[in-house]
Amino acid sequence: MRLSVHHKLPVIEGSVLLAAVLRTNVFLSVLIVFPILFSLIGLKWGDLGFVDRAWYTSVVIAYAVLEVPRLIMGMNGNKERSVSSLIGFVTLSLTFHIGIMAVYHAMVPRKNSLDYAISTVEIILAGAEVLLAIVEIRKMVRQNTVNFYVSLGMDV
């Protein structure tokens, strides 16, 4: 009989590639994407109707609100090798982040090349983050499995 037990180890080592992609995305989000998106709100505000303003503003605010916890979950999950944090990171990335960027890419009115560039780069980075996080989760689960062999009264 074989039992598998999954546990959290306090070992501090994570994927170097995932850390590099996450740090690149933090740099890109904080120093480039947030200022550009919020300045584009000001530039486009006068040209947009009420519904278009609501779409654009809600997409930008949803991105700003969800991006910070998503990146924190990814950084902490990778650093602490926490499977649950990385699963939360992958879930947020697949459901909300890529969805918000796809809506931004498809439905935001009066797009310019900067809008296309931001959404495309964010979708590509999120895809890379998800793939690297899934590989890291598989690796962690495989390494953190303890095999117990139970003898039921017979000598092996």
TrEMBL record:
Is Transmembrane helix found in the keyword set? yes
**Record Pfam families:** Transmemb_17
**Which InterPro entries does the entry link to?**
Uncharacterised_TM-17
Key words of the record: Membrane, Transmembrane, Transmembrane helix
What subcellular locations does the record give? Answer: Membrane
TM ranges are 20-42, 54-73, 85-104, 116-135
Q: How does it sit in the membrane?
A: Multi-pass membrane protein
The main location is membrane
The lineage's top-level taxon is Eukaryota
GO CC list = membrane
Specify the protein name.
Membrane-associated protein, putative
Supply the source organism for this entry: Bodo saltans
